[in-house]
Each structure stands twice: as structure tokens, then as C-alpha cells.
Amino acid sequence: MAKPKKQSPQFINGFLAKHGQAFFFSLGKLWRQPLANIMTIAVIGIALALPATLFILLKNVQNLSQGWHDQAQISLFLNQDVSSDQAHSLKQQLQSNNNIAQVIYISPEQGLKQFEKQSGFGNVLQQLNNNPLPGVLEVVPASALNSPIEIQALVEQLKQLPEVDVAKLDMGWVKRLFGIINLAQNAVWGLALLLAVAVILIVGNTIRLSIQNHKDEIEITKLVGATDAFVRRPFLYTGILYGFFGALIAYLLVGFLLVILSNPIANLSNLYQSDFVLSGFSLFSSEMLFMIGMGLGLFGAWLAVARQLRKIEPS
Amino acid sequence: MIQFENVSKRYNRSQDALSNVSFHLDQGEMAFLTGHSGAGKSTILKLTALIERPSAGQVIVNQQNLNRYPRRKIPELRRTLGIIFQDPKLIRERRVFDNVALPLVISSYHPREIARRVRAALDKVGLLHKEKSFPDELSGGEQQRIGIARAVVNKPNLLLADEPTGNLDPNLSAEIMRLFEQFNQVGVALLIASHDLSLIASLRHRIITLDQGKLINDGLRGE
Description:
The structure holds 2 protein chains of 2 kinds. Chain A is of the alpha+beta class. In chain A, 68% of the residues lie in helices and 8% in strands. Chain A has helices at 14-32, 34-65, 84-95, 108-119, 122-126, 148-159, 172-213, 215-223, 228-271, 283-308; strands at residues 74-78, 100-106, 136-141, 164-169. In chain A, strands 2-3-1-4 form a 4-stranded antiparallel beta sheet. In chain A, helix 1 crosses helix 9 (228-271). Chain B is an alpha/beta fold. Helices cover 33% and strands 26% of the residues of chain B. Chain B has helices at residues 41-48, 74-79, 96-106, 111-124, 140-152, 170-185, 197-201, and strands spanning 2-10, 16-25, 30-34, 56-61, 64-65, 81-84, 158-162, 189-193, 206-211, 214-220. In chain B, the strands form 2 sheets. A 6-stranded mixed beta sheet of chain B has the order 6-7-8-3-9-10, sandwiched between helices. In chain B, strands 2-1-4-5 form a 4-stranded antiparallel beta sheet, covered by helices on one side. In chain B, helix 4 (111-124) crosses helix 5. The longest helix of chain B has 16 residues, at 170-185. Classes of the chains: A alpha+beta, B alpha/beta. The A-B interface holds A 9-13, 17-18, 21, 216-217, 219-228, 230, 313-315 and B 49, 51, 72, 75-79, 83, 89-91, 93, 102-103, 105-113, 150, 154.
């Protein structure tokens, strides 16, 4: 009788079956010891939620500030005795300057109207006998001037004009904001890295303890002929499951936090006449959260398993 | 089945646990290893199951020379053996059925085949009705029989037993030995370490006697 070439049906075949077996075994183990595991998972969840929240908030700030141009602006406050005509001729003169892209004249009257509208001091201002505001020329430097030093030189030059009382460079704040966002981003990355290490250590340590608790079982399993891979698999799946459930908790925590924040933020953006809406997880970033969680769990478990399992041999 | 050729084993610098031991166990043969504690009985079994490696000499099991046997292939060797210990080494958190099923699960048997074989093995040791119990709910003799069921569930052609009756009263011990003889009758080779001389003398099988690591007698009692 010819031997059948394929493995006989009394065996289960292949990679999937073996891994399915280990997966459900690990899941069952987690299920049977809910309390201890929930605590581990909660710690992982919080560790993942913190950087995830910060990344989402950062992304929102970036979305918000994307509309703003990173442009410097020089405000020239004119002397009180400069007439509207003089101001207009100064404007013409400045517009011919190669270093200047655009000049806008804001007359004292326009300035007062704007101020009334924006400040809410309208009634008070109407009490004044005369307009205390000077005329203002808003100068946008040419885009060729992009270094702060060149722009500063332009400011100095404009200051010398007899009509100008004060020249104020408004460049900074957008740039500063971008600088701060950049810094914050780096800080969040650093924090995320630290917390990733924390997750690896938490999972590694939990798995290490679990291996020690199952020392006898591992020994017996090896005695009846288990390969290292067979012994290792359930522990690795436990690590992956920790990561998965930790990511799930982080996902829920972040979602909860965003719901809490969304109302105050909507109010705030209403005050600024903005239609800004807080955006949460995109599909991609939530996938990333789960992948990172499971990856860290697997890595932590691997570290524990690689060091511990070889040491446990029947004697 | 098993060949020991001038085998010595020394555990870190102490006295030799085995010195220059040679013997053969044929296919389907049943033999007892006896001697005082520390005579080297367990060491012979450990060398056979590759739990230890010899310091000198050669151990050959199932035509495989274990001296050059790579670590990663050890599981393969152990799957062809059944091993029984004085402490039955059951997993306390798992039911009797799952304990006996372990060697089959490791070898990726199909669940249907596992259930069939586990029940057959439990039936053989007379404990089929205990399959849902946990080991701690069983008596010492029952636990030992579960250990035996686990050792034979894979249908090995060689069984190693280290003081299998060490914790049992004479009646239970005799029962376990009868079980071993039944396995032997269907062609399984057995090597059983025991210091219970009165028990093994009552059975007519080959007895290998060790004293301080040396083989001092090898033959059939009463011939």
C-alpha cells in the first residue's frame, strides 16, 4: 500500500492552526484571570493614551494654524501731525522700494472704527473729543527678504523717516508659534518614546512573572517533547493581546477626552468667529495606535521569553 | 532500543554518578533498574531522555547516538518516549483530559484524534470517569495512573519510569506494575527504576543493579 504523501487527517496542518491554538489558549488565560490582567492592560492603556492625546492635540493646532501665513509685517505708526495726504505720498514712496511688497494705509478714522468694533469700547470712544489714534502704514516686506537680519535692517531704515513715530515689527508671533509647535512635537516624540519603553518593560515584566508562575508547566511540557517555539507561542500571544487591549483602552480614553474637550473648544472657537472643529482619530492613526500597541506588547514579551525560557529545562 | 557503552556521568566535580556503565535493552524488553538511592538509577533515565548528557561514553536510543544530538532536535526524541516520574508531574491548573492530551497537542494532532486517544489511554488506566477532574481532586495512585496515561497516549515504543511506585502502598504498586506488564505484552519496551526489591523480585523480569554508579548485577532474578 502506498504511503499517502500528505499528512494524514489525524493531524491539524500548518501555521494557522498552530497559531490559532496558541492564540485562543492565551485569550482563554487572560479571560480566566481578569483582575490582574485588567490592571496590566489599564497601565498599558494609560501609557499609550498620553502620547496619543498629545499627538492629536498637536495635529489640531497644526490644522488650525495652517491658514496663517508665516509673514512678517511692519507697522509704521505715523506722527500725529502727519496729514492724510502726506501719508498717501509716503505710501507711494514706500511702494517703489524694492524691499517692500505691499503697503496699506490705515487712517486714524479707519483705525478708530476697527478698534471700536473689536474692543467693545465703542461707547467710551464716542465720548472722546478727538481721535487719539495715529495713522498707520502696514508694510509687508518683499518675500526676497527672508532672514530676520534683513528685515530688521528694513525696520531700522523705516524708523529714520521723519513721518514715522514708531516702527514695530510684527513678524515674530506666527514664527514663534511654529517654533513652539515644533518644540512641542519633539517633546511629544520624546515622551512617546519613553512611554513606549515603559510599555515594553511592563509587558516584559508581566510575562516574566507569568513564566515564573508556569515554570513547572513549562518544564513538564518540554519533558513530553514540546519545542521551544511551542512553549514560546502562548506567551508571545499574551504580549500581543496585552498590547491590543491596552490600545483599545487608550483609544477609548482619548475618545472620551476629546468628547469632554469638544464643547469648550467649540465655545472658544465661536468666540473667535472660527468654524474650527476638534478632529479625533483618523482611521490611519487609530490603526497605527493598535499596531504600535501590539508591536510593543510582542516586543516586550519577546524580551522576557528569550531570556527566561531557555533557562527552564527539566532536571 | 537503548544502548549504554562505557557511560560515565559526573555532576560538577563531585563523585561519578555513573562510572563506565554498559548495557543494552532490546526492543520490547522490560527491565528494572535497582540500587540504593544515589546509585545512579535516575541518572541512567535522564541520560536516555536527554535531560542530561554523559561525561564520557555513548548513549544510543532508537538507533540515534545522543552524544551528537543537537539541542533543537531534543523535542523530537522525547516524543518517541513515554516518561513517568515518582511525582507524576501533572499540570494542576488543567483537567485530567488536558493533562493526558498534552503530548498530542504538542504534536499537532487533530482534536478529534486527541479526544479518541486520550479516552483510550484513560480507559486503559481505568480512570475514564475522571477526565473532567483536576489533578488535586485525585488520590496519589490515581494521579500516578494519569501520569502513565499521558506517557502512553503517544503510543511510544519505549517507556521510562523513575520510581513510579515510590509514593504508593503495596497494593497500588502491584496494580501499577500489572499495568506496565500489559504495555510490555503489546510490545512496548520498559526501563523502570525502583528500589522496591520485594515488589520487583515478585515479577519475573530482568533486573539491572547499580551500586555507587557502577553496574554490579544484570540478569533475571530467580534463574
